[in-house]
Design a protein that fits this description.
alpha+beta; Immunoglobulin-like; SGS_dom; TPR repeat
Amino acid sequence: PSRTMSTANAELFLGHAAMVDEDYDSALAHYSSAIEIEPNNADCYSKRAAAQLKRSRYTEAASDATASIKLEPSPKAYLRKGLACFALQEYESARAAFGKAIQMEGSGGLGELKRWMRKCDAELHLEKAGPAPAAAATSGASPAATAAPMGSTAAGVHQPVVDPSRVRHEWYQTNTHVVVSILARQVAQDKVSVQFEAAGVGVTIELERGAEYQLNLSLFQKIMPDECKFAVSATKVELTMRKQAAGKWESLEGEGEGELQVASVVDASAAPSKGVYSGSKKDWNNIETDLKRQEEEEKPEGEEALNKLFRDIYGKANEDTRRAMNKSFQTSGGTVLSTNWGEVAAKDYEKDRTAPEGQEWKKWG
């Protein structure tokens, strides 16, 4: 058992080191190896969920976080499940997970978790609210046309939209993406046509009863058409557009040459869901940064404290020190961790290693 534990910890350590290097594929491989060795270790699944999130593999991240929770519930596992579900647009599940994390977290990290809860509430509200009532300018419409929605609001939430004038759109942005949500309900995928251009986007949606909705936007700045996409759900058509140059747009529309406001540097691969809703004072890009800061400020105990010490040393080390740590730890079977590359480069730990007292080394396979 002690040999198994040592090997699993070695894989976890190597996974942590890969995460520090932002080599998420290697991190996934090491965490997967740790799970094979010790399949009932909740921390292994939770760590792999974090790596899955970095690779934008949200379904797998949700699955790993759920497995961790079943083995041993923890705030971090619930947080990672919430982040994965939010990215999958499963807002009810995401809200429930964030709620569990808040219950377990105590006083630490509540502000950030509550912001994620509010963000879930905002998305759920958009899904349930449907299109806004007709503007005041339509007050001249017939009484029958204006009275009908009042008696059918609840039932109409899930009804297909038939009037193009009642379809509205909203937008938000991150440092690298712009997302436009067209709030048209119950639209079939094959009824939606989207054309992305360098400084614009055109959308055509075939509605019920032969009606057609069109949206043509001349954008504030240029986008990268080949890296843009759209998705159709039961409540909206969502366009996700990659900015050609990172920065904050003052508005959605313009002449394609608007002056950018340079935002604080964030991960260019960050998911658009971490952005700022138009009209909001909340900068969702800061949430993950704050969570990382809080994790760094935590005071772990026992084995977790030792792992954190290794991660900190590895993260601040130069290339030779990292090579020394990796070689000594791997080839010694987890019994030696050296930072002296001059010594480690010439040493054969596999030949010279000795087993703990009362045990012996054996080669498997």
